[in-house]
Please model this.
Amino acid sequence: MRERAGKTDDGTDRLRITDQFRTRAGMVYELRQHGARLTLLISERSTDDGSAQWCVEASSNVVPGTAVEHSATTKADALRMTGVQWVADCGVRGLPTFDWEAVARALTAVRAI
Model:
């Protein structure tokens, strides 16, 4: 029997990148899991002292207008901090749950982080 695309061995949705594109602000990655979309904008910003910072802004179609954003010296650190904040805000803001380790693996696979 063939495994259905987008499903794990136990039949649940696996997280996957569904789209990626460049904007003036940076790179956008759209991911989907359990019917919810996670949109990530990864951009580089300059700080007051002239050093570069990477910013990851996460939003979802489930709660429009709600974004979680963190900056760090690396893309991976900015993503990790954004994921930690997202998980902390899930109950309070009604955000959908995502496997942030799977998000990091998916973005690493396409060399986004």
Observations:
- The CA atoms of residues 3 and 9 lie 8 Å apart.
- The chain has one domain: 16-107.
- DSSP finds two helices and five strands in the chain.
- The chain has a mean pLDDT of 89.
